[in-house]
């Protein structure tokens, strides 16, 4: 593989983590070194902490051994003052002005214990307090510093390394935001579905999965949303397409199994399939008891756990008498708990307590 092909494969690995091993193996062979590792690092007070790591085959096999020292705070390279001083750099353990003689001695002994010789690297800043580095280590016993031949190749690699680093940093940011969005979507009690005009399912959150599994008139099969009645399926299709407003009602076998559907947004483009349009849909069934955490109710309303448990069961449709029997306590005790919960929340009736809890949790 010539240098141009090697650089092309590095770009090709940006979105495919598993391809990095082959890329780093090729760079390692090109330089004749023992290891090649790509890392993203972020500053944390006086230290640098890796948030991304790609290794060659040998480094992957030796990961536990290397991480014990070479990729730990014991390594002087992981001090904050060793990050690139400019936008980019080509440096080595022996040339870097960030290291003292004691640091270099620590590096020599520590790296040797990991089966590595001295190191040299490419580095570039990707954001304030963040940078990436591609670091190479000689074989044990090879004490050479970076050579002119090494510098020639690394200078050729540097602009492409900078571009790849920027792309990876952006992808890491996107992935972090997506992870937060996914966590939020799964934590909300609102059932959400993204589907196309033909009811092809693209995504749903955990609340939607639970609701669909509970109700008899709706199901998911072969990647599609299915309704038990043809007429109901037609109504849902027309609602998604905007032909019947934004809401519809789907009856179940029992009155309590009614399903309400609302289109929150329609006609978002599906970039994977041009021409395909998606809609974001919210689902709810008034007859399905909400899932409420008693500990949250206790924290939010200043209730004891006993009062919060009573409140959550009242929200779920139980009577005070039913709750007392369920908990194995006297009905009078349950009524005292209710009286205390009413006083703490500033309402006078059980119905007001239930409404206040539902309204608060719905907004959260």
From TrEMBL:
InterPro entries: Sig_transdc_resp-reg_C-effctor, Tscrpt_reg_LuxR_C, WH-like_DNA-bd_sf. The keyword GTP-binding does not apply. Residues 300-357 form the HTH luxR-type domain. Residues 71-92 are annotated as: Disordered. Keywords: Plasmid. It comes from the Bacteria. Residues 78-87 have a biased composition (Basic and acidic residues). SMART domains: HTH_LUXR (SM00421). This is HTH luxR-type domain-containing protein. It comes from Novosphingobium humi. The lineage of its organism: Bacteria, Pseudomonadati, Pseudomonadota, Alphaproteobacteria, Sphingomonadales.
